Amino acid sequence: xxxxxxxxxxxxxxxxxxxxxxxxxxxxxxxxxxxxxxxxxxxxxxxxxxxxxxxxxxxxxxxxxxxxxxxxxxxxxxxxxxxxxxxxxxxxxxxxxxxxxxxxxxxxxxxxxxxxxxxxxxxxxxxxxxxxxxxxxxxxxxxxxxxxxx
Length: 150
Fold this sequence. Notes:
This protein is of the alpha/beta class. It has a single domain, classed as SPOUT methyltransferase, trefoil knot domain (Alpha/beta knot, 3-Layer(aba) Sandwich), CATH 3.40.1280. It is about 45% helix and about 25% strand. It is built from five helices and five strands, in the order βαβαβαβαβα. Strands 2-1-4-3-5 form a five-stranded parallel β-sheet. Helix 1 (about 15-25) links the parallel strand 1 (about 1-10) and strand 2. It is globular and about 50 Å long. The model has no long low-confidence stretch (mean pLDDT about 95).
């Protein structure tokens, strides 16, 4: 299985970028990954433009996980169980989509196979990326019985 992270915009803050890179380094012990950034769009149709860009970077056969405020609120252990299900179902690629500041288009939401909410709280996109990657790393450590998750 391979992870692909597709998100709108870049991680500009050096501190968040350092955390992101650290958790990606840790995650790389368990799974291959790639990151694709799509450009922030401006204007009244920015959500549709960004949505089309996100979908253009997503393979039709990939399992798609959308970070969505209306998504499922699950614990770290429940995420680990979902990850095991994805592995058991032999998904070759799991794509994690993170929309822009205004959310995602209905087309993107319809394409999602799984919608995940990281919290009832609102985070910046840079924070959400770090939290997502850290939680995926944590899920692998839970499934492998490594001490990190305690």
